[in-house]
Amino acid sequence: MANRWTNTLTDRDVTPEAAFLNRRQLMAGAAGLGLIGMASGAKAQDALEPNPWEDITQYNNYYEFGTGKEDPARYADALTTQPWSVKIDGMVDKPADYALEDILQAMTTEERIYRFRCVEGWSMVIPWNGFELADLLNMAGVQSGAKYVAFETALRPDEMPGVRYPVLDWPYVEGLRLDEAMHPLTIMATGIYGRDIPNQNGAPMRLVVPWKYGFKSIKSIVRITLTDEEPPTSWNKANPNEYGFYSNVNPEVSHPRWSQATERPIGGGVFASRVPTQMFNGYEKEVASLYEGMDLKANF
Ligand SMILES: Nc1nc2c(c(=O)[nH]1)N[C@H]1C(S)=C(S)[C@@H](COP(=O)(O)O)O[C@H]1N2
Ligand SMILES: [Mo]
């Protein structure tokens, strides 16, 4: 029956009501903050229903604040995030300590709703706010010989109770190949749900590489170094047989101690069933070409 509602139906009207309302709130929030534009990557993710704020900010891995999932939410408030600067050095034209506010001034912040898959076998959907890492690297001017990007997290023994324990070799470090770092899906996140990113999620600025296991997405970054050699990475140093440099989400390559074929969506409840893990975490179309011809089992 034709009525005034059916006449105005759009694809949005078929999304679940909660997601729809949520989305409208987000859009209003983004408009209020003056955030510009939606990237094509985000548009393609419209069907994803993000986890609630509580899941995203109370179930965390941030070992500098303890190894329990609730430790970061409990202790990370102690981290001083203002002022903040990021040293960008190595093979760049303009090496400097960049003040975070100067970086944000120069960058275009947008919303990206991404799947997030931890190597431990759980997953969430997170509505990040951030900017493309490529834009930041281009601002510093990447030199032609550069092949990799190394990242380092702040190390503040007075503010981080977890670094008293040698769980990892502090500071936490990570790395990407330059083409992975320059890929448009790779972002620096500074917000979640249109609000400042909480300390437990890596304030004031953390990496998000949605097709890789979560530990590649290094938090609270203080240094970015362009180099021509594959940089050391924290989990690889801790256990090279279990954690490789690439760490792409891959249901066909098992962790030595568990399968990666399925995952447990956080918020699904204790009895919720696991769901299949997707190749490159669902971003195969966008990123598979980066690894053409590579043996993904050998380069895990
Ligand atoms: N500096 C630092 N970055 C880190 C970690 C960490 O312990 N320290 N944990 C990683 C892991 S294992 C995961 S799954 C994600 C978790 O991000 P989230 O807490 O925002 O969900 O952060 C990653 N980045
Ligand atoms: Mo993780």
Automatic annotation (TrEMBL):
Q: Does the keyword Signal apply?
A: yes
What are the required cofactors? Answer: Mo-molybdopterin
Gene Ontology MF terms:
oxidoreductase activity
- Where on this chain does Mo-molybdopterin bind? 60, 63-64, 118, 153, 201, 206, 217-219
What are its E.C. numbers?
1.8.5.-
Q: Which residues form the Oxidoreductase molybdopterin-binding domain?
A: 80-235
Q: Which residue windows are coiled coil? A: none
**Alphabetical list of Pfam families matching this protein:** Oxidored_molyb (PF00174)
Q: Which reaction does it catalyse?
A: L-methionyl-[protein] + a quinone + H2O = L-methionyl-(R)-S-oxide-[protein] + a quinol; L-methionyl-[protein] + a quinone + H2O = L-methionyl-(S)-S-oxide-[protein] + a quinol
Origin superkingdom: Bacteria
Cofactor binding summary note: Binds 1 Mo-molybdopterin (Mo-MPT) cofactor per subunit.
| Modifications the protein undergoes after translation, according to the UniProt entry | Predicted to be exported by the Tat system. The position of the signal peptide cleavage has not been experimentally proven.
- Keywords annotated in UniProt: Metal-binding, Molybdenum, Oxidoreductase, Signal
Q: Which family does it belong to?
A: Belongs to the MsrP family.
* Its biological purpose: Part of the MsrPQ system that repairs oxidized periplasmic proteins containing methionine sulfoxide residues (Met-O), using respiratory chain electrons. Thus protects these proteins from oxidative-stress damage caused by reactive species of oxygen and chlorine generated by the host defense mechanisms. MsrPQ is essential for the maintenance of envelope integrity under bleach stress, rescuing a wide series of structurally unrelated periplasmic proteins from methionine oxidation.
Subunit info here reads: Heterodimer of a catalytic subunit (MsrP) and a heme-binding subunit (MsrQ).
NCBIfam families this protein is in? PRK05363.1
Return the PANTHER family for the record: PROTEIN-METHIONINE-SULFOXIDE REDUCTASE, PROTEIN-METHIONINE-SULFOXIDE REDUCTASE CATALYTIC SUBUNIT MSRP
Query: What is the protein's name according to its record?
Result: Protein-methionine-sulfoxide reductase catalytic subunit MsrP
What is the species listed in this Swiss-Prot or TrEMBL entry?
Pseudosulfitobacter koreensis
